[in-house]
Amino acid sequence: MVPPARTRTEGPVTFNYSIQPHAVFRASDAAKFGAERRQPLIVAPSDSSSQPQAPLMQLSSPELLVSAIKPIAGGHNWLAYLYNPTETEQKAVVRWNNRLAVSIRSSDAAGYLGGPLKNIDLAGFDSGYFVISKANDSPDADRD
Questions:
Q1: What is the largest CA-CA distance in the chain?
Q2: pLDDT class for 144, splitting at 50, 70, 90?
Q3: Fold topology of 57-134
Q4: Nearest residue to 124 (alpha-carbon basis) of 91, 82, 73, 85
């Protein structure tokens, strides 16, 4: 049986595959590998005499992925979207660059604030938005 014309594709079709050898399967490694293939780094020349920049933030759980992070409220706060690709609940502490103390609040995609959090807890296969601000800054400032 021939499929209807609207479901057929005329001409050649190209598919790209990436295969990564691994030992024990880890969902977080597979999700990171997929993100690396969909969003490759942009290569640019750098000054070899300069020091590497510290990461903006680190999570204590290597299983959680920071899918997006952007400044809000005039750059005083950051809106982070985190994803847990594993089937088990993950808990994480946020370590901001230069070890600055931060406050964390639950949020939505628009940056509206929920309750304060001590740590980030994400159920298996869950994701969420969080507002991160320096402990001495108010996260209640207007969003951009």
A1: 68
A2: very low
A3: Immunoglobulin-like (2.60.40)
A4: 85
